[in-house]
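tool=predict chain=A
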Amino acid sequence: MSVPGIDQLKELQPPPPLVSYWPQTWGWLVLAVLLVVALCAWAFWRYRRWRRDRYRREALAQLDELSRSLDDPRQRLPALRQLPALMKRVALSMQAGEGAAPLAGDDWQAYLQRHSAAALPAGLGRHLALLAYAPDERIEKLEQSEARAWLAACRKWVEVHRVAA
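tool=predict ok
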């Protein structure tokens, strides 16, 4: 009797899988389809929201630019003059924001507060009017900290204001 050599050995076939990888019931297929539909709906909703908030992103970028301009004495006055117009443009860019166009003073402050998710400083509307219409000498006398505080209040409003759908 001879002993077989290693070159005569044959590899064994692997056994068939005991459990199929394919779902056995229609329930899993329905769950997968529902999951894909929900994921597509969520992605569509996020895309629409991203598109709708374009004005907000642009306003925040412009506020960053205005904030940098406050440090330069030559650009400080034009930057402060642009702040009220920027706030009005943001309000007009909102859905149903046409009602903000004629507002000024206390009515403007009430409009801003009505659409804000956070409390606003009491005189924001009055200070925006001051920045828009006061003589240059009066605006140049504003302290840097005060100007930054009003800019921060405007930034906060742009970030958190509610848009009526």
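Residues 54-160 form one domain. The chain has a mean pLDDT of 86.
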